[in-house]
Hints:
The chain has strands at 6-8, 13-18, 31-37, 43-47, 54-58, 61-66, 72-81, 88-96. With 110 residues, the protein is mainly beta.
Amino acid sequence: MLSPGRHAVNTTLRLAVQFTNDDYTDVDPTTVTLKIYSPDGDTTTYVYGTNAELERDDTGDYFCDYVPDVAGRWNYRWESTGDGTAVAVEGQFVVQASAFYDVSSRKYQL
């Protein structure tokens, strides 16, 4: 069983963001970028309209279904540009070690 607030290795995780203007009305920024920083120190960048992984649900609502492949603390950052919509939103999630995917987490031979 996973610890509360943790995710499993090689399991899809939805990262989502909502962009609004100063009146809290949903708006589509000029550009939307998602950066994901892995526990290994690698950064993956997705740009809406360029990378199919970054999708739009509705006005101002974007998401990426991401599959983390190693255990540890992951960080992500949504960035946008445009008049009144230039913002950055950061977050993180934890992926729990798995004896099936992470050899260093094995306490005994499977």
